[in-house]
Amino acid sequence: MAVNFCMSCGHPMETREIDGVDRRVCTACGHVHWGNYSIGVGALVFKDEKMLLVRRAQEPGKGKWTNPGGYIEQLEPIEQTIVREVLEETGIQAEVKSIVAVRDQPRSVHNVYIAFEMNYVEGEPRPDEVEVDQAGFFSLEEMKEMELASFTRWLLDVALHVDKNGLTIDQKATAVGNGDVYFRL
């Protein structure tokens, strides 16, 4: 979808080459539309050697089992996003342990998905009945009989075969910043 009017001032946009790429630029204020992006997050929460899964109640993937997750809000720190999404979808309270995987999907809306390993804190799985219609902790044996989304299977493999702690929050760098959170190996 072409951006025809400036999101900053409402004037018409035109196409100009910037750094070798055609971009939409406002004819009045010069605002550049850099593209369309979305950032998704997913949780890998384990309890008693079982993984938290939800069954999708909506498309895409309706009826398939997947890890809980969702999209960040504009001013919401990503660490809060994943905690919120797990709680909203499942009723489970969990805390971030590390980042274990990143998926990059360069498409018309460029999507970056960050998968977090999370520590179970408390709660019993209950679906939100909007985005998901079932939720629970499942063993590897139980998952063999379930219709898992292929991406969730990949994430499970990543979680089971990680040979490092993944990316973890760098407390020193985070404490220095202005609310930014830094992750490192």
UniProtKB/TrEMBL annotation:
InterPro entries linked: Nudix_hydrolase (IPR020476), NUDIX_hydrolase-like_dom_sf (IPR015797), NUDIX_hydrolase_CS (IPR020084), NUDIX_hydrolase_dom (IPR000086), Nudix_N (IPR029401)
PROSITE patterns: NUDIX, NUDIX_BOX
Keyword Magnesium in record: yes
SUPFAM superfamilies (alphabetical): Nudix
One GO MF term attached to the UniProt entry: hydrolase activity
Keywords: Hydrolase, Magnesium
Residues covered by the Nudix hydrolase domain: 36-161
UniProt KW Lyase keyword: no
Names of the cofactor(s): Mg(2+)
Family of this protein: Belongs to the Nudix hydrolase family.
Name by which UniProt lists this protein: NUDIX domain-containing protein
